[in-house]
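Predict the 3D structure for this chain.
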Amino acid sequence: MPGQPENARPGAPLPRPDRAARRQVLNGVSVSSGVAVGRSQFINRRGNTTLSRRSITAAAAEAEVERFNQALAALAAEFGEARRKLAGPADAPASGQAAGQAYGAAAVQGELLDAHIMICRDPKLMAAVHANIRERLLGAEWACDHAVQEFTATFMSMDSPYLRERASDIQTVCGRVIRILQGEAPLGGPAAAAEPQAEEDAPRIFFAHDLTPADTLALAPEHIIALVMEMGGKTSHTGILARSLRIPCVVGCTGLEGSLQDGELVIVDGINGLVLVNPTESDLAEYRELQRQFTAYEAHTRRKSEFPAETADGVRISVYGNLETSSETGLLKAMGGEGIGLYRTEFGFLSRSRLPTEDELFNDYRRVLSELAPRPVVLRTLDAGADKMIGQRRRLEEDNPALGVRAIRYCMRHQDIFRRQLRAILRASVYGNAAIMFPMISGLEELRFAKGVLSEARQELDNEGLPYSREIRIGTMIELPSAVLMASALAAEVDFFSIGTNDLIQYSLGIDRGNKYVSYLFQALHPAIIQSIKLVADKAREAGIPVCVCGEMASDPCALPLLLGMGIDEISMTPQVIPLVKNLIRRSSVENCRALLRQVYNRPTADSVLRIVRSAAYTRYAEELPFFASMTGTNI
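Done. Predicted structure below.
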């Protein structure tokens, strides 16, 4: 893998373990796949830092507010400097797969730094800390920690896994602010200290309690072969960065500080989420072979990522990416994506503290369409409300926001915002191959409302003499049971369907997948889900329109054969998974997939379906499933 030292390459001699040292196995969560062998080095040992819980007098409040403001400004400056250093590579055009991967990695890193800079400038966060100082008379460190706990509780209550994970980012940023308040130098202190020593000019495996993006970027990529963290989750910024850099990363690994010292020999197993400290000779031999197999698998899938996804019996499947920002287009192209099947436009709203103007949205959409032309780009209109509030708008007091004012219902309530977005999409459509998709449509009334506002936006642009594409396609998402049952009527009024399986499962089975008490009921292979998707595919075929699956089922090796058997010919997923899924498709036969679908279609339980499809997956893809699972986070 890139960045690994000579002695970690498959087949080369590996460092011998110190036989006097005690072998340990630490468990964590893999967030970036691969295998690395090297010497350990802690970036910091700050996990046990004692928080200063001081009360202050009213007279000291303003000085304490200013002290907090200065610490926050120092951190924002640190992030800004890292962002400026990154600007050159991130803005360079991608050419070829290697350049595209570098472009994508730099772009992802830039997005993360931008997000952390925004946290530093968040007026709500600043106001909360200021109030804790002025009204509760808490010292700046305690006031910041108190605000973090409140913000974290709010984010963790949200339905969106993406937004729940942002709580980790707030904790990371505010944790650094607190350490600055307690005397830590803000500008790259831990990163600078982590430079390899001259006498051991070899890359290291870095350990830390947590890292900001600036910390990770300050470590030159050639100095890092793996990361191990006590904090973090699947979608935390450290995992995202590690995947963009293509280095193994294990997070949630508790007890690091008491388990090893700098310079110890370590194996990081980013396939199974393990860290082996002072491995045995047998461990080293075993992981040498595992690393060889993984490297060969990764190279094979990436080498063929630009080739079409065509089954063994000649059926072509279009494979698209799900994107949130235009910065991901380089990565999408590098991974062999044929376009964007789902562009989540709400992040253009969520990333701003105020509502974006029409011109700002137009520039966002023009950028992504231009960069991918002539590839298709399906822009899902604003899916806000519930747990995703935009600008300074307050969350509605709804007993069950997931069943309340969100997506198209939010747009019906705020037609000015909806019209602004549609005008921006139409204006940008002349720069590429754009399509518009409406989310959370429950029936014809909502679809016709959305098409009516779109028609009005077109007329306005005509009156103003502004150009737009007359060929733009219109589609609807199928993610509600009512839309499944109305598929024939809906198909008569749109150019394509897109099945959002994540929400379809949640609403069909009546469960909140973020609720730990019922999350076990979130079953993609529930008979009702299989039958619903097949019904939609059948109705789309009768109407002569394409249907795409853009939820997690599209990249699940147990579910994918069933989708192929139903006649689904377009799928969309996170870009990093595209080469792996294309490889699975090439090893599949649609005729065999149809036979598998017939075998499970009338099964009465999800367990009975899962047993059959899992057995089929292990029969067809046995040697690659462990690697696929570790690289995608799929439970197989």
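The CA atoms of residues 262 and 269 lie 19 Å apart.
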